[in-house]
Specification:
The complex is a heterodimer of chains A (114) and B (115).
Chain A lengths: L4 E3 L2 E4 L5 E6 L6 E7 L6 E7 L2 E4 L8 E4 L6 E5 L8 E8 L8 E2 L3 E5 L1
Parallel strand pairs in A: 2-11
Antiparallel strand pairs in A: 1-3, 3-8, 4-5, 4-9, 5-6, 7-8, 9-10, 9-11
Chain B lengths: L2 E3 L4 E5 L4 E3 L2 E3 L5 E7 L6 E6 L5 E3 L5 E5 L4 E6 L8 E8 L8 E3 L3 E6 L1
Parallel strand pairs in B: 2-12
Antiparallel strand pairs in B: 1-4, 3-9, 5-6, 5-10, 7-8, 8-9, 10-11, 10-12
Classes of the chains: A mainly beta (114), B mainly beta (115).
Amino acid sequence: GAGVSQTPSNKVTEKGKYVELRCDPISGHTALYWYRQSLGQGPEFLIYFQGTGAADDSGLPNDRFFAVRPEGSVSTLKIQRTERGDSAVYLCASSLYGGLETQYFGPGTRLLVL
Amino acid sequence: AQSVTQPDIHITVSEGASLELRCNYSYGATPYLFWYVQSPGQGLQLLLKYFSGDTLVQGIKGFEAEFKRSQSSFNLRKPSVHWSDAAEYFCAVGEVDTNAGKSTFGDGTTLTVKP
């Protein structure tokens, strides 16, 4: 079956612009996670959805970052007033029920802020 | 707060040689531990995980890992490395108390395989 997909695969934007990154989880997976991976580092947790609700957004770095999952499937990570420090690979993962279930990762969106 | 340390940034081994990648964690309770592999252009793939029970865990692609509570370690091993194992490997500890499933990752070890 289809895995987790993310679009776009690459995004180049200018400082101060707004960007949206999309994640399509595996069909039927109720849990969805966003991580950010900076160069030379491991993924860093941003936010976790259970269904339509954000169950834990403790990893969002500031209020420029926001994510939604309105129908409990596709999720969009939104970044306002982008800064050069936001440049990273943004990873999405989904799992069947959350908790101890295996997380399946997408290929990521590479964001470059000029 | 939980944390993961992977002491080796880069390891090079010859094809057919054995491999051990080190992982040390910090967590207040019994941890949930994971090893992932990330190949260029591909997403993270789970190799194996430890929740409880037998401290020697078998995973995919011939990998295994051993949980040692006394050393706060969860090292990944493979008896004979193949060229296709060249990739970046991440150790992670999962959050137990909230059961959210969110993980804290180490900074990874890059594996190069010499022919």
